[in-house]
What does this fold into?
Amino acid sequence: MSAVFLDSNVILLHLLDNHPELSPRATAFLERVEAGDLRVEVTNTVIFEVVFTLERSFHQPKAAIRDVLLQLLDLPGITLPGKRLVRSALNEYVALNVSYADAYHAVVMRERGIKQVATFDRHFDRFPDIERITP
It folds into this structure.
């Protein structure tokens, strides 16, 4: 079975259930993924877009965003390169109350053995193992 690329709007319509026609279709599609009838692939940018949209446009709490995305990523029919990194980033996004982007960058830094970040963003001070240096 070949994979289908899953765009963020399908995930968002499913999670938000805010469109009378498209939300049920999105949910039915993801139910097929859950049942193993479909295999889909997503990228980190899809996850970024879903997190950003849920947080900024729909004012969803970080913990709720993390929880629904972790459940979604656990579906056997979903392939995401670097899924382990995304899981870690979602957990740090909540635990340290930082942006998802910063959490993801910190996780990638650790994965690559990088201990310093050049930034003016003070949120990186919340990561105990990362030293923020200002240019």
About this structure: The CA atoms of residues 15 and 68 lie 8 Å apart. The chain has a mean pLDDT of 97. Strands lie at 4-5, 40-41, 78-79, 116-118, 131-133.
